[in-house]
């Protein structure tokens, strides 16, 4: 799904850059659709640029005339399949619907389960998408053929380990069990583990050359008796944190586990940070009296709307304040990075760079959509203001022209200009006298230069 959304984002960028002609294409429905050994194929459709393979209610886009249904994680039973041709925004009628039957699956049992230096490993099982490692009565799902038991806060003593292979909902029988012995360590257990403002600390352990901080199942080696959890940019939630002391040859028993909660972000804090990034003079909830010019205030209100939309969306996406605020700088540097991107891989890497802020490609697309809506609304409001200003300027020019026409003898002035002005310049003057104000600004500018020329050159 992540890869699909990345492609969708790229397509959105492409749509912005490329417009299509108004060419109507009528596509025929794909014919001779057949399924052989789990692979669906069909005849080419004239003018088709791609095809949608629809399996039950899910669709998969391809540019070739075949699709391997075995690549999907389908439940045992019958599934409907049909194909649709595509060309730009045009789609054909669906093909004849076929039934694809998935037999009840079985999967092999992991073999050669061994433990070396605290890492349990086994031979890969054909068809397995993941594995379940059972440690005593607790299960851990992994996608590799090994698992580091040292990441667990296991007590000293014997522990029973077994492995099952898994494909979707299909689970194998358990492997032969092996015993993992956690020896009593000569290293002391880290004591007084505490967390304050996201900084976890503990008492130094005599003889330890380092420590490993565990946040749930992720481990972070350090040399000092402190670790800043804020650097992890963890999404909101509650985490279990414990510490082990280490030397080059031994690991202590795990410390007591403490809970660390990353709260839901405060939208007001993110809003204030976004405003500050837009302009160092911007503060939340500023009023028109805070600005010398009304246009500066209008600019502030538009930026305030965008900052509010960003903060609200960040909270809705489950971002922390640290993630949302850090991402502002990342976004600001995007134009510079985009100058170095010249291929599809570079664009995908740019999209993936937002993962550290808790935004996968789906959430990033939603963020862009929400901010895009606000941006369009702001632009429309700005156009309304500019139209009103332009209309008022026309009225002001008409009033100025009427006042001038009421007090000035233009016929006499024109007669004096005749020997000096060109035919085009006289035509401009006549247009001005007639009351045509559509191009008044330009006409006044031209007349100014005529007057200057008369004053200084004749």
Give the oligomeric state: single chain
- Unreliable stretches covering 5 or more consecutive residues: 1-25
Count of alpha and pi helical runs: 10
Any idea how many domains? 5
Largest sheet: 5 strands, antiparallel
Structural class: alpha+beta
**Cα end-to-end separation:** 78 Å
The residue-averaged pLDDT reads 83
For the CA atoms, what is the radius of gyration?
35 Å
Strand content: 15-25%
> Looking at the structure, what is the overall shape?
flat
Helix content: 25-40%
Please count the beta strands (DSSP E, at least 2 residues each).
23
How is this structure best summarized?
The chain is an alpha+beta fold.
What do these coordinates show?
- The protein has helices spanning 2-17, 267-278, 294-316, 321-332, 334-338, 344-352, 361-407, 410-417, 423-434, 440-457; strands at residues 34-36, 39-41, 50-55, 58-62, 66-68, 77-87, 90-91, 98-102, 114-116, 119-121, 130-135, 138-142, 146-148, 157-167, 170-171, 178-182, 194-196, 199-201, 210-215, 218-222, 226-228, 237-246, 258-262.
- It has 458 residues and is α+β, with helices and mostly antiparallel strands.
- Strands 3, 4, 6, 7 and 8 form a five-stranded antiparallel beta sheet that branches.
- The chain is built from ten helices and 23 strands.
């Amino acid at each position: 799904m992540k890869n699909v959304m990345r492609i969708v984002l790229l397509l959105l960028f492409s749509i912005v850059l490329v417009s299509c002609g108004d060419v109507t294409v009528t596509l025929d429905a794909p014919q001779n659709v057949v399924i052989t050994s789990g692979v669906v194929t069909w005849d080419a459709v004239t003018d088709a640029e791609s095809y949608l393979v629809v399996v039950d209610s899910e669709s998969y886009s391809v540019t070739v005339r075949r699709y391997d249904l075995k690549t999907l994680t389908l439940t045992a039973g019958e599934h409907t399949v049909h194909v649709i041709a595509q060309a730009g925004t045009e789609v054909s009628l669906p093909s004849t619907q076929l039934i694809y039957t998935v037999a009840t699956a079985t999967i092999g049992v992991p073999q050669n389960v061994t433990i070396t230096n605290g890492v349990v490993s086994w031979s890969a099982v054909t068809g397995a998408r993941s594995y379940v490692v059972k440690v005593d009565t607790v299960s851990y799902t992994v996608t590799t053929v090994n698992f580091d038991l040292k990441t667990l806060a296991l007590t000293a003593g014997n522990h029973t380990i077994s492995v099952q292979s898994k494909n979707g909902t299909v689970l194998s029988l358990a492997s032969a069990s092996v015993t993992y012995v956690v020896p009593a360590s000569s290293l002391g257990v880290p004591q007084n583990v505490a967390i304050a403002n996201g900084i976890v600390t503990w008492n130094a352990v005599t003889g330890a050359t380092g420590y490993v901080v565990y946040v749930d199942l992720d481990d972070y080696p350090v040399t000092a008796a402190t670790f800043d959890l804020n650097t992890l940019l963890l999404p909101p939630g509650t985490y279990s944190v414990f510490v082990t002391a280490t030397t080059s040859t031994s690991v202590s028993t795990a410390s007591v586990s403490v809970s660390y909660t990353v709260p839901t972000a405060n939208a007001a804090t993110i809003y204030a940070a976004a405003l500050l990034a837009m302009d160092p003079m911007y503060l939340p909830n500023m009023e028109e009296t805070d600005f010398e010019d009304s246009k500066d205030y209008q600019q502030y209100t538009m930026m305030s709307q965008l900052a509010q939309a960003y903060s609200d969306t960040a909270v809705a996406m489950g971002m922390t304040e640290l993630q949302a605020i850090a991402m502002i700088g990342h976004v600001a540097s995007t134009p510079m990075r985009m100058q170095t991107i010249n291929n599809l891989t570079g664009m995908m890497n740019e999209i993936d760079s937002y993962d550290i802020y808790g935004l996968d490609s789906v959430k990033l697309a939603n963020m862009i959509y929400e901010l895009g809506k606000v941006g369009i609304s702001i632009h429309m409001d700005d156009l309304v203001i500019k139209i009103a200003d332009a209309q008022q300027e026309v009225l002001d020019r008409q009033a100025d022209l009427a006042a001038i026409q009421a007090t000035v003898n233009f016929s006499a002035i024109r007669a004096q200009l005749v020997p000096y002005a060109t035919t085009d310049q006289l035509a401009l003057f006549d247009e001005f006298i007639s009351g045509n104000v559509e191009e008044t600004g330009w006409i006044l500018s031209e007349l100014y230069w005529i007057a200057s020329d008369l004053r200084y050159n004749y």
